[in-house]
Design a protein that fits this description.
Blueprint: H1 3-15, H2 19-23, H3 30-38, H4 48-59, H5 61-71, H6 79-85, H7 97-108, H8 112-115, E1 116-119, E2 125-126, E3 130-137, E4 147-153, H9 157-178, H10 182-185, H11 187-201, H12 204-217, E5 224-225, E6 238-242, E7 247-248, H13 252-257, H14 262-280, E8 282-284, E9 292-294, E10 300-302, E11 308-310, H15 313-327, H16 331-341, H17 350-361, H18 374-385, H19 394-413, H20 419-434, H21 437-454, H22 458-466, H23 471-508
Parallel strand pairs: 5-10
Antiparallel strand pairs: 1-3, 2-3, 3-4, 4-6, 7-9, 8-11, 9-10
Helix pairs in contact: 4-5, 4-6, 5-6, 9-11, 14-19, 14-20, 15-16, 15-20, 16-17, 17-18, 18-19
């Protein structure tokens, strides 16, 4: 990290009074008086959360993005800071059009005139890592050329990112060493996770692959549209995808004026979320209002695929169990699912965890379901988690963030949204498909190709084992099995004799 960058960060920290976050720790409280005397001229009139947000905005796009990630980790952040950081936005001015054009031509090896019959040099959107231009491909077979969105990576951003990430990693080590909660909160893993997301965003081929997967998952959906990607026009610094016309989801008045069914949209949002999570195990993890449009046919349009989340089958099963247990107020099952999944230490007492979960959740059930915020219940559970040393699950961080976004979006469209009532039938169907004879048939169908390959090779593999001087081992194992079988047979004979004796006694009476 350059000395100039370090000096700037130190200046911002002092200017906005962020030193109080560190000096609030007991190990360094002796420095409080000294620093206060040195900074007697400083006046801090705003709350600490506001000052933190302003500091991150002044430090640039990487710190803004990190603040956005932290705002989703309400298990780590006090409520006032998490709420303030949630307001962070990528308000970044666009870079010059000639630089964008040069980037496109260098990446794709052709001039913009060869690539497009139309290209608007004025960007239509600009963010911290890229900006977007509108263009049109050349006509094919006499048809009108396809309208496309051309996303161009911001040049020269990589050195800044690497420098700032190095600083964040250093700070994470300090947090882990200084604070009693440091190891449980896994600050280095949080920064590493942020590092991975950020580098994924800097490779537009990665984003193109994410978009293609979502496009395929929702190919014939009546709820969600995902633009097609044109890979002949894609590279690490440039991505070209189908242009989508729609109304931004945040413009409620325009949606109403266009005759959109807001209640249906609200319900669609919840169903799309659960479809991505439980059916596909692959979900769009950056679904804030800036990345969502509404098409003329009342379908959602998803944009910006730099950040996606994935879940294993085990994660999906335990999540479904937890959701359904919450809906049914089965707090004991919630507690046992947490222990079974390894999210809490195995020595945790089920009864204590069950009581804590009941304390958080039970008050909400005295209200109508439409007034219950599942996102708020999650936040209360995060606070409770500290008592039980709940392990931070990196694979679930994006899921938590996305669920909060979806619920907030749904309530904005329909204040009476009943998230639980909308989600419960979906989860019950999914569980029925995973458990029981339907789940068995699905598993058999999935495993059949592997069995078809494995079964014909079993004789050869058995012969190989026998030829590798394992005969004695196999014989010993066989003898052991026979002895176990004999013991069981003896037990069965004894049981039969006892039963026979009882029957004889009854008959003699």
């Amino acid at each position: 990290m350059s000395l100039f960058r370090f000096i700037k960060i130190a200046h911002v920290v002092v200017h906005y009074g962020l030193d109080e976050f560190l000096l609030g720790h007991e190990r360094v409280r002796g420095l409080r008086g000294l620093l206060k005397a040195l900074l007697f001229w400083r006046k801090l009139d705003q709350p600490r959360a506001v000052r933190l947000r302003l500091a991150l905005e002044s430090l640039g796009p990487i710190f803004v993005k990190f603040g956005q990630v932290l705002s989703t980790r309400r298990d780590l952040m006090p409520p006032d800071i998490a709420n303030e950081l949630a307001q962070l936005q990528d308000n970044v001015p666009p870079f010059a059009s000639d630089i964008a054009i040069a980037q496109i031509e260098r990446s794709l090896g052709k001039s913009t005139a060869e690539l497009f019959c139309e290209f608007d040099p004025q960007p239509i959107a600009s963010a911290s890592v890229a900006q977007v231009h509108r263009a049109r491909l050349h006509p094919v077979d006499g048809k009108v050329g396809q309208a496309v969105a051309v996303k161009v990576l911001r040049p020269g951003i990589m050195p800044i990112i690497e420098s700032d990430l190095a600083l964040l990693k250093t700070l994470a080590v300090c947090v882990e060493k200084l604070f009693s909660d440091g190891k449980r909160l896994k600050p280095r893993e949080v920064v590493a996770e942020f590092d991975r997301y950020l580098h994924d965003e800097l490779d537009l081929m990665h984003e193109a692959a994410n978009a293609s997967q979502l496009h395929r998952n929702f190919l014939n959906s009546d709820q969600l549209l995902v633009p097609a990607v044109y890979y002949d026009y894609c590279a690490r610094e440039v991505m070209v995808m189908e242009w989508m016309d729609g109304i931004p989801i945040g413009r409620i008045d325009e949606l109403k004026a266009a005759g959109m069914d807001l209640k249906k949209l609200s319900k669609f949002g919840v169903e799309i979320f659960f479809t991505q999570v439980f059916r596909h195990g692959f979900f769009h993890a950056d679904m804030h209002p800036g990345n969502i449009l509404v098409a003329a046919d009342n379908r959602y349009i998803a944009l910006d695929f730099g950040i996606v989340g994935t879940l294993s089958d085990t994660d999906k099963q335990y999540l479904a169990i937890n959701f359904l247990a919450f809906f049914n107020r089965d707090y004991h099952r919630v507690a046992t699912a947490h222990i079974e999944s390894g999210w809490v230490p195995k020595e945790t007492r089920v009864e204590e965890l069950e009581a804590a979960v009941r304390t958080v959740c039970e008050p909400f059930f005295n209200k109508p379901l439409s007034q219950i915020s599942f996102g708020f219940v999650l936040l209360r559970l995060f606070e409770t988690s500290r008592r039980f040393n709940v392990e931070i699950q990196p694979q679930l961080v994006l899921l938590q963030k996305t669920l909060l976004n979806i619920e907030g979006l749904g309530r904005q469209l329909d204040p009476d949204l009943d998230l639980w009532q909308t989600a419960m039938p979906f989860l019950q169907r999914w569980m029925n498909e995973q458990i029981g004879w339907r789940g068995l048939l699905t598993t058999l169908k999935h495993e059949a190709p592997q069995w078809a390959t494995l079964l014909p090779t079993l004789p050869r593999k058995l012969n190989e084992v026998l030829n590798q001087n394992h005969t004695e081992l196999l014989l010993a194992g066989y003898k052991g099995l026979m002895w176990e079988q004999k013991k069981r047979n003896y037990v069965l004979v004894v049981i039969a004799l006892l039963l026979g004796g009882l029957l004889l006694t009854q008959w003699l009476r």
